[in-house]
Amino acid sequence: MNAIAVMPIASSEEKRTPLFLKVLAMMGMMTLMGGSITGLMTYLNQGYSELFYAQWIRAFLTAAVTVMPLGFALMALLTKLAERLFPNSSEKVRNISIGLIMAMVMESGMAFSTAVNSVGIADTSMLMSTWLETLVRALPLALLLMAVVSVTLKPKVERFLKS
């Protein structure tokens, strides 16, 4: 008896993931990463008080509308650049490299926006010392999150966004 393999005929119109689901996925990543890091930074700058949550939300929203959109654009650019410059490297190695660069860039921006929310811009010396201290003290969390996200979530999210 001859077995005939039946191959499904690809439809000319593949199902695409709705845009609102893609936006929700990106907002989820922004909230996870940005919320964790700005929360830690706010705590490091202000400590825990009755104003902590209001200051945290303010720092997160500031970062969400300034630093994070630039970060996502930079991540896309770095991903394309890494694919061109290092075509023989594994995707995992490229993602870890991009993750480390992005951790520093995003961390610097969020530390700056959190420092501005904490001490203002009137005293630039205080602003810069608060920014640097916040950056250095929160860096371990940012590096850990970016390493985990770069290796686990980033490839899945990229495939999801391309679908």
Automatic annotation (TrEMBL):
<dbReference type="Pfam" id="PF11391">
    <property type="entry name" value="DUF2798"/>
</dbReference>
<keyword id="KW-0812">Transmembrane</keyword>
<feature type="transmembrane region" description="Helical">
    <location>
        <begin position="98"/>
        <end position="122"/>
    </location>
</feature>
<keyword id="KW-0472">Membrane</keyword>
<dbReference type="InterPro" id="IPR021529">
    <property type="entry name" value="DUF2798"/>
</dbReference>
<protein>
    <recommendedName>
        <fullName>DUF2798 domain-containing protein</fullName>
    </recommendedName>
</protein>
<feature type="transmembrane region" description="Helical">
    <location>
        <begin position="134"/>
        <end position="153"/>
    </location>
</feature>
<keyword id="KW-1133">Transmembrane helix</keyword>
<feature type="transmembrane region" description="Helical">
    <location>
        <begin position="56"/>
        <end position="78"/>
    </location>
</feature>
<feature type="transmembrane region" description="Helical">
    <location>
        <begin position="20"/>
        <end position="44"/>
    </location>
</feature>
